[in-house]
Amino acid sequence: MHDTAASRGRVRGVGPVTGTRAPEPLRYRAMFDELSDKLGNVFARLRGKGVLTESDIKEGLREVRRVLLEADVNFSLTRQFLEKVEKKAIGALQIKQVRPEQQLVKIVHDELTAMLGERREGLKISTVPPTIIMMVGLQGSGKTTTAAKLARRLKAEGKSTRLVAADVYRPAAIDQLETLGTQLDVPVYADRSTTDVVKIAKAGIEQGTRNRDRVVIVDTAGRLQIDADLMDELKRLKAAIKPDEIMLVVDGMTGQEAVKIAQGFDEALSITGVTLTKLDGDARGGAALSIYGVTQKPIKYIGVGEKVDALEEFHPERMAGRILQMGDVVSLVEKAQEAFDADAAKLLEKKVRKEGMDLDDFLAAMRQMQKLGPLENLLKLVPGVNTKALKDAKMDPKRLKHVEAIVLSMTKAERKKPEMLNGSRRARIAKGSGRPVSEVNRLLEQFRGMQKMMKKMGGQAGKGGRMPFPMPGMFGGR
Q1: CA triple 102-103-107, angle to 5 deg
Q2: Domains and CATH numbers, the chain
Q3: For the packed helices 256-269 and 228-241, what is the interaxial angle rounded to 10 degrees?
Q4: pLDDT tens digits along 49-81
Q5: Residue 25 carries which DSSP code?
């Protein structure tokens, strides 16, 4: 038996996780795009009617029903959802102060939020450490990877975390967990001398207790399908280690099968929460919209990619807002706070306020912005942005790299005083950056506009307000 820690070495390209919460890029949610677009079309048609009647609402909700069923949402849940919406929407026709179509969108949003779980529910952290989290699920759901992602997230929040390799059946499962632990600098307890998962888990928890770990995550074995042997083993393990959380990991790509899997595990183990993986895939989203309604167990996290940082908290209200194209400003602000270097931003703000903005400042701000990920994904979180228009815009993901190449092709003096950039200098910069002269000219024109804006904002900040920081990525449309 042994305890693997990343202090022995690191997998190339992956550094240690610090005590601060690591930035997470904004990711593309392919799963909900089609559902979001179809619901958007329904509400657009209702808005176009001007005055809504009871008949209009019923017709619109028939369309919503079709959209939800096509998205693979549970039939019974869809019926209950629409009954509640119709009752409230017809009542809203009597409220003259609010336009009926706006009230209808709000009602759908509220009921969609309720279907997704009402409010964010976090992990149950024990007052007496360590908190024990038991990860369960079928093979292929991403359970082992999710265990490591969760360990990374908890460690980044300042909670010392240990992984326990209790999957003794799948070939290389222990090796996989140890490799992930090494990447994340998270200790992994493993014992290859026995297949007694209860013995392994208890020993790993004891080691975590001795080392004063705040959290111990036990990775259990999966199966190709739910069977009696699997459930008996998990029941014995649950009775022996008395976990604070039983986290079911479900593949979101499996649609309504994911709901059946959740029901099966819940009946056997009384799960406390669900992590839905592969939400960056091309599924229809019905599993996410059905799991809570069927099991009454909250979705706590969502997996949105293969990388170890691709695990996000699940917020029902925010997800409902995104599905209905209402934006998610709270998530946008949180992402910015996580990605931005606060000290560097303060120094840059102080410098810009005192001396004005030059192209070095522009470049520094742009690099901060790049940490947030693709611009179109960021814009999806802004209320009122038309997602169909974003697709049609065909934004070039290399745009910020092009801007960076142009600025870095300038001399220090040119970046300090852009006004000295005459025609020959611009031609040299274009050649050095591999971009056309027209693009260099456009960048300088946009920069001058930003300079004026920052100067105006700086004057307002000097009267007691805070000067908003520029968002260079927003100024680089094709």
Answers
A1: 120
A2: 2-25+120-314 (3.40.50.300), 31-116 (1.20.120.140), 333-475 (1.10.260.30)
A3: 50
A4: 667 778 888 888 888 888 888 888 888 889 999
A5: -
